[in-house]
Every structure is written in C-alpha cells, then in structure tokens.
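Can't paste images in this forum, so I'm doing it all in text. The chain is below; anyone willing to post the predicted structure tokens underneath?
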Amino acid sequence: MSVVLMLGSAPMVVQAEEWPRAFDTVVAINNAWRVRPDWDFAIYPWDFDPSRVPVAAAAHTLVTEADFVPAQNRYGGFVYAGATMAYTAGYWALDALRPRVLAVFGCDMHYPAGQTHFYGTGTPDPLRADITLRSLEAKSVRLMAMAALQGCAVVNLSTGPSRLMCPRAALSDLAAVRPLAFDAFRVQAAQAREATLGYFAPSGRYWEDLSAYDVAEIDRLDALWLACLP
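Text version of the structure:
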C-alpha cells in the first residue's frame, strides 16, 4: 500500500515543486499538474477548459468522469461525498490506488482576498451554492471515515486555514501516520441514514433533478458525519 500526494490549486501548492519524492504517486487536480513534472495522474471534470488539459507523456494518465463517476458511486455517490474536485479526486484515489496514506496539499477550500489559486485568480468552486457542499467540513470527515474503513489515513500537509478536518502532517510524518479511530457505531449510523434516504444519481449529474433531495435531510446527514470525528 502506498503514499499518495494529492495536489490542489491553492497558492501555497507551489512549495511542493521542491519537495523530494517522499510518496509513491502524485495525483494532480485540475491545473495542479503544472506544479511538478513527475505527476502520475491528472484528474479534471467534464467542464474543465480543454486548453488547460495537459498533454500526457508515457508516464502520465488522465482521469476523467468516465473513471471517477463509477469510483465515486462505489463510495455512495456525489450527493453524499460532496461534488467538488478535491473530494472527487480523494474518492477516486481511494478506489483506484488503495493507498495507505492520502496526503492532501493545496486543497484547503479557503479563499483569502487577492490571489485565490497558484496561477492567479480562479473560481472558488467549493463555495458555490450546491446541495452537496452545504458543509465542507462534514464531507471531509466522511472522506476520512470511508478511507479509514480500508486502512487509509487522510492527512493535510498545509499549515494555513482549512475547511478540511483532516489531521495536519509533515512530509517526515508520512511513514508513521495511521487512520483516525472513528466510532464504528456512529459511522454505521451515518451510512444507514444514507441508505435510507437513497440519494443516488448513477450518472453523477444529481443537479438534473434537485427535487429528489431534501436539503434539511442533507443537513441532518452532515451533522451525523461531523459527530463521527474522534
């Protein structure tokens, strides 16, 4: 089982350009493939600007919705997981790479005034009004809990403000980190509530029928996941 570095587009992500290869696999979200030439996977959504898609060399693999929608569905689907690329990439990595550690950097979903992304000013996608993103914190707890069920620790390598609830870590910690000890009863209760609600869109395009989802129920479900945090 491996250590996966997952790069987002926050301004500090350029620090990773100089990091030693203290991980087995690099997953770059959207534009983050520009940060390091040794990326292994570049993952991006269906509406990503084609001019920004990298040209994949032999050592590179592009990951699109044909790959990540089925992966996301195996973890409950977009409504429960949170439909923004940081979470989508996280679940894809859990499914496709089965890592021991998922180390996240530049995915804090915190947007200060001024420069919002390492390449300048971008759209803060996780902050859009969306039924799946009402609590970014709850979605991060769910990702950690689902990862822990398969023996994977999710950690945050950044040191600044973050909407992620993941434990902080340094590169030197990666060999020793372990998954958080989640309360199995609470995790099972949240999963049972998801099964009861049945909020599932196999295509991934949940927005095509928003009437199928009750916002109050999603908020209650988010509270259940937040209560799982040790």
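The chain has a mean pLDDT of 92. The beta strands are 3-7, 25-29, 41-43, 61-63, 101-105, 153-156.
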